[in-house]
Give the backbone structure.
Amino acid sequence: MARGLNSVQLIGTLTQAPDMKYTAGGLAILELNLAGNDHVVGSDGQLRELAWYHRVSVFGKQAEYLVDQLAAGTPVFVEGRLNYRAWEDASGQKRSALGINAVRVDVLTHGPRKGEPTVLDARGQERLKNALNHVTIIGNLIRDAELRYTPSGDAVTRFVVAVNEQYRDRSGQDQESVHFVEVNVWRELAESCAELAKGDPVLVIGRLVKDNWTDKDGNRQYKDKLEGSRVEYLTRGPGGGGASTRPQPAQQAVGAQRGQQSRPSPALDIDEEFPPEEDLPF
Amino acid sequence: MARGLNSVQLIGTLTQAPDMKYTAGGLAILELNLAGNDHVVGSDGQLRELAWYHRVSVFGKQAEYLVDQLAAGTPVFVEGRLNYRAWEDASGQKRSALGINAVRVDVLTHGPRKGEPTVLDARGQERLKNALNHVTIIGNLIRDAELRYTPSGDAVTRFVVAVNEQYRDRSGQDQESVHFVEVNVWRELAESCAELAKGDPVLVIGRLVKDNWTDKDGNRQYKDKLEGSRVEYLTRGPGGGGASTRPQPAQQAVGAQRGQQSRPSPALDIDEEFPPEEDLPF
């Protein structure tokens, strides 16, 4: 399995004063609601400005010294990582969410951006017209990519990438976790990605977007996804995908092989943690 | 001094087979010469395609398992850091260079890029028309920014950013080094950055370019610089600039103060390590 790469860079403004919480163990957690506008090329080839709203979690000392510097409207730069969580809700339904954990947060001042145009959102809050939303991941597909067409005829390919993370916990133990990132790519890129198969290691660069739809029970659902603007195939095996030099955990056997190298799939089967097809917007 | 951020992402192709060396201590060093084309907006507002050539150093085990997978033309993704070196040449002249040290290298295969157009360079080597050259740094200006105008009337502002790096060396000691990165920004951004002053903490996002010029002795000189497409001012003091929680090393006093916080300058005086003005291309 490819060694994971998981990098998020955001520049945006806070939509409200940040919310500070403490865990039972006394760890500070600061929740930042960030917004910004950035630009994508639409199906007509024109640049379109799109708003994004994402929540960023900041932990520990950094949370404590940031809390007094931040207010609604404060512009910040965030470097962080996508963080996948899965749980069962009160009714026993499996749920999952993709969040952003900050590695660092820097408060921006009005220097070069002085006089830079902003837009006001529905709550009257300033949103940067030239925000930043840059995400880079490396991981493996957990199942074959799926190509579909929207009612207006745009090709869209969906796939889910398992991004490995290896870290040392507070007690000094080596831990491994996996972040499942749903990726959508559009039009020409969608068609060229349709052949991506389970286990394939990929590099995806894009922006984090929030899909929302109404599920079959009439409830509004939200899900953060990566809208890929660039997808690269990585080679497999030693060195390919920046292969870890650590011993691999036990992995499921995979029937089909592509290329010269064996193709282990992620150890977890998370298919059922994703919303059923009928809950998806198209 | 702002806690440094130093991130390089490149996608390009090797211009030749990589060159493997070993240090006296047995550490493998693999040198990759990479090339690619990317796009910038020119003074006429039009997208222009520009070639870049950069050298990337890969170390240790990663170098050893990569060497057999790489040949002239192999496409790779590199995540790395800018690395500043200074030395005296044989004639006692102070010299410096900015290189790229790889954190990881992934070999790309012809997946979605299948059929993607490439150009041939002067040596007949394929160069990706859609390469990637994405650099992000956070650091402090070592002297005031300088605004000039090219003979054709384009504004260009130059400044040098000291990027801190803290790391643990092989013997487990905490070390600190500083990377000096020369930044050029153009036109409107140049004019808005002209007021940046010594000590100011900034975030710069841009592409790494190689300036070349003939010095007063008639020798061809090359220097890697960051061409900034985005510059953000950071706030100072605790939390601002992602302030380190470590004790600060002894720092020079700085006369002028801006803002509410003290403004230490980098501990090193490297002014003389940069080429004299007459050696610069304009």
